[in-house]
Amino acid sequence: MTHVTTTTPTTVAGDGGRTAREASPGTAAGGPRRRRPGRIRRVSLPYLLLLPALLLELLVHLVPMAVGVVMSFKELTQFFIRDWGAAPWTGLDNYQVAVDFDAPVGEEMLHSFLVTVVFTVLSVALCWLIGTAAAICMQDAFRGRGLLRALFLVPYALPVYAAVITWVFMFQHDNGLVNHVLHDQLGVTDKPSFWLIGDNSFLALLTVSVWKGWPFAFLIVMAGLQNIPKELYEAAALDGAGTWQQIRRITLPSLSAVNQVLVLVLFLWTFNDFNTAFVLFGKSAPAAADLVSVHIYQESFATWNFGRGSAMSVLLLLFLLVVTGVHLAVTSRGRRTRARV
Predict the structure, then answer these.
(1) 308-313: long-range pairs with CB below 8 Å, 24+
(2) CATH code of 183's domain
(3) What is the pTM of this model?
(4) What is the pLDDT of residue 314?
């Protein structure tokens, strides 16, 4: 008589009676676990999708940045433009000339830097103030709110050249709309003012920058307001809090994270802004509106000293990196402090 021996699959303890074969699918008896090809594809897919963007970032930003750093250590003038690799090395001479504030080049660079700092602080503050006020006013639903929101975003949606060139015509001395309103209609000024030259050029530049930048602050703050529960305002109203108290105690604290990112982005954009001043004043900006970006352009393409202009660009990059690092350190420390409390 032939005896048939049957084997019962062993179960894994504490696993609801699952068999050892079921507990380790895809493995041979006693062999190592193999990673499925589909899992490898799923893990590598995000990196493959990011690869084109990383290559474009490398070609558009990182490579020119590295070339600019190399150029800052060379005496790259108009005599070496055809073969800039043959320009002699100067070491840190270009940087020393740029930061020598007793010499004419360094003095002009310092003046341009201070003008840019004042301009950036005022522009960012006004953009944030106007954008936040408009977003708060647009928070409650009313008839025509959608149309107003669309109109508020028009300056931000317009191309820079089309927007700024319109202001150039408005700031004209003889037939500009600004002088017509201020002098002819309202009588605020004794005579028509020159807005594109002299000291008034700073006000003209600030006006255009704020007009062009505040819709972005409005858009970001308006998106942040959507995340604040309306129950907080209802509870505050029941406790007798007025509108200003609700804004100060609920709205602004709830928007702190949004405002931190918004202020940093506005600062970087405004400090680096070249298009607005260039379209408004041309290649040579007045001394009162001589921004760093325009000054570096003039140093590079007007005097044909690309080595010194590259050194100034590197110094500007280092300054913005320091400001960004300090801002991130302060904001992260503030978040940790609030988390402990």
Answers:
(1) 308/94, 308/97, 308/98, 308/105, 310/68, 310/69, 310/71, 310/72, 310/76, 310/94, 311/72, 311/94, 311/95, 311/97, 311/98, 312/98, 312/109, 313/68, 313/72
(2) 1.10.3720.10
(3) 0.80
(4) 93
